[in-house]
Amino acid sequence: MTTSAIKKYVVALDQGTTSSRTLIFDQSAHLIASIQQEFKQYYPAAGWVEHDAEEIWQSQLSTLKQALKHAEIDLSHIAAIGITNQRETTVIWDKNTGKPVYNAIVWQCRRSNELCQALKHAGHENEIKTRTGLVLDPYFSASKIKWILDNVDGIRARAERGELLFGTIDTWLLWQLTEGKVHVTDPTNASRTMLYNIHQQCWDKTLLALFDIPASLLPTVQPSSAIYGVTCLLNPEQPIPIAGMAGDQQAALFGQQCTDAGSVKNTYGTGCFMLMNTGKQAINSTKGLITTLAIGPDGGVCYALEGSVFMGGAVVQWLRDELGLIQHANETAQAAKSVSDNNGVYLVPAFTGLGAPYWQPDARGTLVGLSRGANRNHIIRAALEAIAYQSHEILTLMSQESGINLLELKVDGGAASNDFLLQFQSDISDITVLRPNQTESTALGAAFLAGLAVGFWPNSTALKHTLTIAQQFRPNISGSQRQTLLRGWRRAIEQTLAAI
Ligand SMILES: Nc1ncnc2c1ncn2[C@@H]1O[C@H](COP(=O)(O)OP(=O)(O)O)[C@@H](O)[C@H]1O
Ligand SMILES: O=P(O)(O)OC[C@H](O)CO
Fold first, then answer.
1. Are 279 and 291 in contact (CB under 8 A)?
2. How many of the other CB atoms lie within 10 Å of CB of 303?
3. Which of 14, 105, 107 to mutate to test the pocket of ligand 2 (most atoms within 8 A of CB)?
4. What pLDDT sits at residue 3?
5. Which atom of ligand 1 is nearest to the CA of 268?
6. In the beta sheet, which residues pair with residue 292?
7. Of 63, 107, 241, 340, which has the fewest CB atoms closer than 10 Å, so is most exposed?
């Protein structure tokens, strides 16, 4: 028996914005264990969001240990560990002590907006977009790194002396886990920093100069499926390879095996992130989408178009926590179905501004079309419909910019369990929506990447064989009904933009 023959499992570390999770999969991609731990969010000023990087690491390690214990798995049966992570979130730490020099600045944090505006006014927007595929926005890492270097006492000097390291969360976790403290990221995460040239596929010296960031801070970039190092933290006698890394949305794309040009997935989590694989072609969006690096069939680099909706499933949390209209998210489908239509009510949930394709950080939420007959269920319905309308706008642009008539949309994420939402998405976008058996696509993508690197799965055909579609939602409204609904949504968006 070969060593690989006794390997039965791959572990995925899924480090998200609000929780750290560990999931264990077997060779058929069945979920064997899943442990989740939430951690604290820090809001030190309006629009600022931070995490404690140490707490992220400790919560991640704790879920790893608990998942192994819970599933009663012998370490010798683990083929590899894969990492997937909230993207863009920025950590800088001391390479000798391992201590972060400042809290992690989270992707949602707007503190570097002024810096981005200044770069915009100085005419750098196009150059940045050409090199990185990204819209000049505080969402991405570069302006966050610069903020730390410029605002935390003594940090720039220490960075210039080569004492500090930068990483997105993948890099931070890998560094913590590995023997010899490996300082590496993968192309998908690098492509979110605004410092990586997605065409030449290297750190971009012009952008490092523009943001005034020393190159010594940066990790080495290695493929998303590769053995980066081993961890001996669980048992010094049993090193386990860390063999896959990808940003969570690209991992979900790979987990759904959207590896061919033209395949699309939408993840309905806190926000909604739609990615379309565009193969070897980097499509330069002129309509507010971004171009990003993703993963091809063999784990190598390819391009994708992405549209990020900032308020997705979170709008359901708002119904629950702020309006008190529901007690549980799973009540919403029934409530929405209990009324025959939205009664003219539209909600634009721009609570933290509008993401793609508008990129309007100052927009705020709008509820329009209220009449005397509008009730709780109409508002709940409008909230779910808003998730689908926002996703629809992105899907339409992707289709226009790629020239591909999209016929299928694969979905995953917490809110993808909502049948009303998926049926409405299918109706409004005139597309077949496919919900897989395994909706843990993000973690599965990380597991696939790690498993491929160590031969646990031999190739992409083996990965595809593990996936099945659990449910399909097909369009069930007329073209004129669709046009009427979309007109109402566009009016609501116009009102939101007019109020900025
Ligand atoms: N049945 C449901 N209907 C609508 N939204 C839901 C439902 N179940 C969960 N959600 C939403 O899904 C989100 C959580 O999904 P998840 O994929 O875990 O998100 P994230 O990875 O962004 O934390 C929450 O915002 C929650 O409100
Ligand atoms: O942690 P999530 O699932 O909300 O994902 C966050 C995204 O990666 C941000 O770009």
1. no
2. 22
3. 107
4. 45
5. 17
6. 304
7. 340
Residue 190 resides in a domain = yes
Enumerate the known binding-site residues for ADP.
17, 21, 270, 313, 414, 418
CA 268 to centroid of ligand 2, rounded, Å: 11
- Residue 19 belongs to a domain: yes
Please work out whether the CB of residue 352 comes within 6 Å of at least one atom of ligand 2: no
Whether 345 maps to a domain, the answer reads no
Any ligand 1 atom below 6 A from CB of 313:
yes
Any ligand 2 atom below 6 A from CB of 390: no
State which residues form the domain around 93: 4-248
| Nearest bound ligand to the CA of residue 193 | 2
Residue 48 CA to ligand 2 center (angstroms) comes to: 16
Strand 264-268 vs strand 408-412: parallel, antiparallel, or unpaired? parallel
Backbone angles phi, psi at 35, to 5 degrees: -125, 135
Among all bound ligands, the one having the nearest atom to the CA of 107 is: 2
Distance CA 442, CA 477 (A): 31
Q: What does each C-alpha distance from 372 to 279, 324, 343, 378 come to in angstroms? A: 51, 20, 10, 12
DSSP bridge pairs for 167: 91
* DSSP structure string for 65-90: HHHHHHHT--GGGEEEEEEEE-SS-B
Rounded to the nearest whole angstrom, what is the distance from the C-alpha of residue 337 to the centroid of ligand 1? 19
CA–centroid distance, residue 415 to ligand 1 (Å): 4
Side-chain-side CA neighbours of residue 227 (13 Å): 13
Q: Is 355 in the pocket of ligand 2 (CB under 6 A)?
A: no
User: Exposed, middle or buried: residue 432 (CB in 10 Å: 0-12, 13-18, 19+)?
Assistant: middle
Regarding the beta carbon of 36 and ligand 1, being less than 6 Å apart is answered no
pLDDT averaged per 10 residues, the chain (length 500): 67 94 96 94 89 97 96 93 97 96 94 93 96 94 97 96 97 94 97 98 97 97 97 94 97 95 94 95 92 94 94 94 95 97 96 88 91 96 98 95 91 95 98 93 97 96 94 97 97 95
Unique residue bearing structure tokens 């960031």: 213
Q: Is residue 189 part of a domain?
A: yes
Query: How far apart are the C-alpha atoms of 427 and 423, rounded to whole Å?
Result: 6
Beta bridge partners of 348: 366
What are phi and psi for residue 358, nearest 5 degrees? -85, -35
For residue 72, the number of C-alpha atoms closer than 13 Å in the C-beta half-sphere is 0
Strands (E) in 258-397, as ranges, are: 264-268, 272-279, 290-295, 301-309, 346-348, 366-368
Number of domain units in the chain = 1
Bridge partners (DSSP) of residue 433 are 409, 473
How many CB atoms within 10 Å of residue 297? 18
pTM for the complete prediction? 0.93
SS3 235: coil
Instruction: Give the whole-angstrom CA distance, residue 194 versus residue 196.
Output: 6
Identify the CATH number of the domain in which residue 17 sits: 3.30.420.40
